[in-house]
Write a structure and sequence with these properties.
The complex is a heterodimer. By secondary structure, chain A is mainly alpha-helical. By secondary structure, chain B is mostly helical. In chain B, about 60% of the residues lie in helices and about 0% in strands. Chain B has a two-stranded antiparallel ribbon with strand order 1-2. The chains are: A mainly alpha, B mainly alpha. The interface between A and B is large, with 65 and 74 residues.
């Protein structure tokens, strides 16, 4: 890719990366807490997710159980029981469960980052 | 607004290192917050895909059994499989004993419901030791049954999977297939990362697009599905995603020689993965002409040669083999002979204007999950369709507002694109159009035209859609908007797994009807 020069921010201590871009310092990327409304929105979505997993009931929309109403917990635990019934090693089932857990936790964090990501500092018109 | 207004490269008939567009943005400027976001998204994606590999019923992905068998033939017989020659096969029929052909192995017959063209009665004791290999079709005669119908697919994906297959021969076929499913994840990861790089190149500092475009790809149910099953589509999607990123870089930097070479290699590899990736070739060609200027024929033709040469060197041997073996460059004429049940879905114009065809492809874009056995509810399809329609409207508004330089664009860098950014958006739109026309074209020959032939254009479609949504969201509301879109996409995945995929898999072994492609 072409190397480009970046105008130095007046207070920035330039640290050139490989392509000549300048690493923004804390001074050029102010760390201010996300607005309260965004936090409340994020918290509401995360709480909703928790309630869904803990207490949610859905109508099954595919397969031979079509139309049945089942709790979300029952569906997820039933899936892990199904893996056990196939003869999957307990460690493997645990790994699958951990993967789901990591994905959920990472999604919660990524959602926070999604709400709070602001346009790059010093971003000028192209 | 033409590229020549900004170009200052001198060409001498050979490809020269062109200077980038004057006053180009610092597109690779470090942005720690964005890097943090994409890192977390990629970690999330890996974990999600690991779970997805287990969540889908074994071999239930589209053509998984056939792709698995191709790898098996490559490893066991050190050659690519071949489609049976119907005429020669019939001539060799002795009594009712079918001549040999490259088949899906007997021990995979319990999963026959997940193939095309294999007479399927897995519970019939008659077939327990010797599955059917010949069918009689009234009025049409004998046909082979259970043949490897993806034998005309290019070999790159299967060669890439061969080491993993070889290393896991002690596992059961189901175990091996799970390993091959795991091997699809890196290609999905590349696709998500390429989406991020595409946005960071085209609109370097925009938070909304940085969040929503890779987020859309990471959570798109069918793209994610491709990256959790045994298939070559995910490799094609990943390679074309990289090519799209490269095209935008090229439009910004006037296609320097190394980039042309890299694009040529990428194009060659994509053609060695799936022939449908050819749709990106005209887009690359047009992009080069736009970047260099059509008058500078030496400039763009030199770059074209630098790009086409490695692509041809890589891909030509395979397509020459196809022509020598099947008489055409795709093997589809042989497929048409063998798939007696397949018929054109309509003419090109009919399919292009048929709302049912469009609706069917939309359903496959978000649901269906291979073999069209998992249908999302109409309510959910509409909940997805409405934002897509709104995004389309927003894209039109964006184009009009940016073109006319309306007042509200004054403080918005994204809404005041430079020439190379206009060109990039045009090329991305072209790729989407070509990909959809390829879906339509396939339907004029076969009854199984599917949305996944469009999926290599996914990153382009995601960027254009999110650009449309961004346009309609007022600037102060965009932080909330980007979070809500990300959250909605994640919620869609949770709902799809909870109400559809997991119950389908868990209860699958109860008898369900098997149908031809839904």
């Amino acid at each position: 890719m072409a190397e480009t020069a970046t105008p130095q921010s007046p207070n920035a201590e330039a640290a050139n990366s490989a392509n000549g871009a300048t690493e923004p310092t804390g001074a050029s990327e102010p760390r201010r807490p996300a607005g309260r409304p965004l936090f409340l929105l994020w918290a509401a979505l995360v709480a909703g997710l928790g309630v869904f997993f803990a207490l949610g009931i859905v109508r099954i929309q595919a397969g031979v159980w079509f139309g049945r109403r089942m709790s979300v917990r029952q569906i997820w635990l039933g899936f892990f029981d199904y893996l056990a019934s196939l003869g999957a090693h307990p460690l493997l089932i645990a790994a699958v469960a951990v993967a789901a857990g990591i994905a959920t936790l990472a999604a919660v964090y990524a959602l926070w980052l999604a709400f709070t990501l602001k346009d790059a500092p010093g971003d000028e018109s192209p | 607004m033409g590229a020549t207004a900004e170009a200052n490269a001198v060409t001498t008939g050979a490809v020269t290192e062109g200077a980038p567009a004057a006053a180009a943005p610092a597109v690779d400027r470090a942005w720690p917050a964005a890097r943090r976001f994409i890192t977390v998204l990629l970690v999330l994606y890996i974990a999600k895909q690991l779970f997805s590999v287990a969540a889908f019923y074994p071999f239930s992905g589209h053509d998984e059994l056939a792709h698995f068998s191709y790898v098996r033939t490559l490893v066991n017989d050190a050659r690519v499989p071949r489609l049976p020659d119907l005429e020669a096969w019939r001539a060799e029929l002795v009594g009712r004993e079918p001549p040999p052909f490259d088949e899906i192995a007997d021990h995979l017959y319990p999963y026959c419901r997940f193939t095309l063209d294999w007479y399927c009665e897995p519970d019939n004791p008659r077939w327990s030791t010797s599955p059917p290999r010949i069918v009689t079709v009234p009025g049409l005669g004998y046909f082979p049954s259970g043949y490897q119908y993806v034998a005309n697919h290019p070999p790159l994906y299967y060669a890439a999977m061969a080491p993993a297959f070889l290393a896991t021969t002690r596992l059961s076929p189901v175990g091996q297939h799970y390993v091959l499913r795991l091997m699809a994840i890196p290609f999905g990861l590349v696709t998500v990362y390429a989406a991020y790089r595409l946005v960071r190149t085209l609109f370097p500092g925009d938070a909304f697009l940085t969040v929503t475009v890779p987020g859309a790809i990471a959570f798109q149910p069918q793209i994610s599905y491709e990256a959790a099953i045994v298939n070559n589509d995910v490799v094609a999607i990943a390679l074309v995603s990289l090519l799209l990123w490269g095209i935008v870089v090229g439009l910004r930097d006037r296609f320097p020689p190394r980039l042309c070479l890299a694009l040529g290699i990428g194009l060659g590899l994509s053609l060695l993965t799936k022939s449908t990736t050819a749709i990106v070739a005209p887009a690359i060609g047009l992009a080069i002409v736009l970047a260099i200027g059509w008058r500078d024929w030496r400039g763009w033709s030199g770059r074209g040669v630098a790009l086409a040469t490695p692509a041809a060197v890589l891909a030509a041997p395979w397509y020459l083999y196809l022509h020598r073996t099947y008489g055409d460059f795709s093997g589809l004429s042989r497929i048409q002979e063998l798939q007696y049940w397949s018929a054109p879905m309509g003419s090109f114009v009919e399919l292009l204007t048929d709302p049912q065809f469009v609706a069917g492809r939309f359903r496959e874009t978000w649901g269906e999950f291979g073999w069209r056995l998992i249908h999302l509810s109409p309510t959910l399809y509409w909940a997805i369709a409405v934002p897509c329609i709104v995004a389309g409207i927003g894209l039109i508004v964006y184009a009009a507002a940016a073109w006319r330089g309306l007042p509200f664009t004054r403080d918005d860098a994204v809404a005041r694109p430079r020439a190379w950014q206009w060109q990039s958006l045009g090329i991305l739109l072209l790729v989407c159009v070509l990909a959809y026309l390829a879906v339509v074209q396939f339907g004029t020959q076969f009854s199984l035209s599917q949305a996944r032939y469009f999926f290599p254009a996914a990153n382009a479609a995601a960027l254009l859609a999110m650009l449309g949504l961004r346009t309609l969201i007022p600037m102060p509301a965009r932080p909330a908007g980007q979070g809500i879109i990300f959250g909605a996409l994640f919620a869609l995945n949770v709902l799809v797994f909870t109400a559809y995929v997991l119950p389908f898999t868990t209860a699958f072994d109860a008898p369900i009807p098997w149908t031809w492609g839904g």
